[in-house]
C-alpha cells in the first residue's frame, strides 16, 4: 500500500460461521477519489465498509486505512467518518446535544460548520432526533460525520430511504465536502444514477467478491456493447473479454472488455453508461456458485 492509497486490502475476508460475507478482497483505492461501491444485497458492501471503519475485524487477509490498521488509535479514528446504513442517531437526544457530543468526542470538530449546516437545513436545534424525518436524520448523521473533518468518509447506503429531493440535497452536501476538503469518499448505493453523477472510481462486488474496480472513465472507455449477426462469443479475437452475452436465433449482443479499438465492421459498437457496466458484471456473477468455506475453517 502506497502513501497515496486511502484503503488497501490484501486477500481480505470475513465470514460468520459457515457464511462467507467477503472473500479474497484485494484493493488499492487511491486517495482523493469519490468511490462508488455497488452490488446486490448480500454482496459484502456493508461488511467491507465496517471492516474499513474498524467496526469488524477480518477473518482472513489484511486491511489498512490511511496507512494504519482501522480504528487502531484515537488519532486514526479521528481521520475516518462513517455513516451507517440506518443513518443512526440517538432518538432521545436533541440536535444540539448531538453537536455537543460530537465536539467532546472529536478533537478536530468544526463547531462553526456544524452549526451552519443545521441552520441551512432549517432544523430546530432543540428538536429530538427521534422526531426528525428520515431525510432530516440522514442530514444530521452526515453533518456529524463531516464536522469531524475526516480525511476519509465512508457511507453505507445513506440515501436508500430518502425521497428524490432529500437525496439530491444529501449528495450536494457530500460533493461540496469532498471538493472543499480534498477528502476521500466511499459511497455504497443501489442507486447507480446517483453514483454516476458524483463518483470517479468504481468497485463492483457480487457474491462476496470484487468483480470490477478502477477509474470510471477508464472502465467506460474499455467496455463496449457489440451487436451483430449470431455468433459464439468464443470466436472473438484474443484480448476481447466477453463479460455478458445474450442471443436470439439471428442476433448476438455482447458486452466486451477490450483496451484496443473494436474495428470489425460486422459489429455495431456502442459505449456503455455506468448502469450498463454495473449490471453486466452483476449478471455475469449470477451464474457463479457460492463460495465454499475450507474444511479447516468450519
From TrEMBL:
Keyword match Transport: yes
Example GO molecular function: ATP binding
Segment forming the signal sequence: none
Keywords: ATP-binding, Nucleotide-binding, Transport
Pfam families: ABC_tran
Keyword Methyltransferase: no
ABC transporter domain location: 7-232
PANTHER family: ABC TRANSPORTER ATP-BINDING PROTEIN ALBC-RELATED (PTHR42939:SF1)
Name of the molecule in the record: ABC transporter ATP-binding protein
Protein species of origin: Plantactinospora alkalitolerans
Amino acid at each position: 500500500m502506497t502513501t497515496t492509497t486511502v484503503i488497501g486490502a490484501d486477500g481480505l475476508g470475513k465470514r460468520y460461521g459457515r457464511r462467507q460475507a467477503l472473500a479474497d478482497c484485494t484493493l488499492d483505492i487511491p486517495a482523493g477519489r469519490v468511490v462508488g461501491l455497488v452490488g446486490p444485497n448480500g454482496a459484502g458492501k456493508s461488511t467491507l465498509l465496517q471492516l474499513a471503519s474498524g467496526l469488524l475485524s477480518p477473518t482472513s487477509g489484511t486491511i489498512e486505512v490511511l496507512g494504519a490498521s482501522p480504528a487502531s488509535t484515537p488519532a486514526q479514528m479521528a481521520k475516518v467518518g462513517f455513516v451507517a446504513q440506518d443513518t443512526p442517531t440517538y432518538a432521545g437526544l436533541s440536535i444540539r446535544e448531538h453537536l455537543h457530543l460530537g465536539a467532546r468526542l472529536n478533537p478536530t470538530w468544526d463547531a462553526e460548520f456544524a452549526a451552519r449546516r443545521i441552520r441551512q437545513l432549517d432544523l430546530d436545534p432543540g428538536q429530538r432526533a427521534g422526531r426528525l424525518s428520515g431525510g432530516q436524520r440522514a442530514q444530521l448523521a452526515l453533518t456529524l460525520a463531516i464536522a469531524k473533518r475526516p480525511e476519509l468518509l465512508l457511507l453505507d447506503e445513506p440515501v436508500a430511504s430518502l425521497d428524490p429531493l432529500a437525496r439530491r440535497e444529501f449528495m450536494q452536501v457530500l460533493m461540496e465536502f469532498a471538493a472543499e476538503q480534498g477528502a476521500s469518499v466511499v459511497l455504497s448505493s443501489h442507486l447507480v444514477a446517483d453514483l454516476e453523477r458524483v463518483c470517479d472510481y468504481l468497485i463492483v462486488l457480487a457474491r462476496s467478491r470484487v468483480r470490477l474496480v478502477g477509474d470510471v472513465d477508464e472502465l467506460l472507455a474499455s467496455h463496449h456493447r457489440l451487436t451483430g449477426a449470431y455468433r459464439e462469443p468464443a470466436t472473438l479475437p484474443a484480448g476481447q473479454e466477453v463479460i455478458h452475452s445474450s442471443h436470439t436465433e439471428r442476433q448476438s449482443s455482447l458486452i466486451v472488455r477490450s483496451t484496443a479499438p473494436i474495428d470489425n465492421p460486422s459489429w455495431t459498437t456502442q459505449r456503455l453508461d455506468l448502469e450498463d457496466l454495473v449490471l453486466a458484471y452483476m449478471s455475469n456473477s449470477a451464474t457463479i456458485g457460492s463460495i465454499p468455506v475450507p474444511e479447516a475453517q468450519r
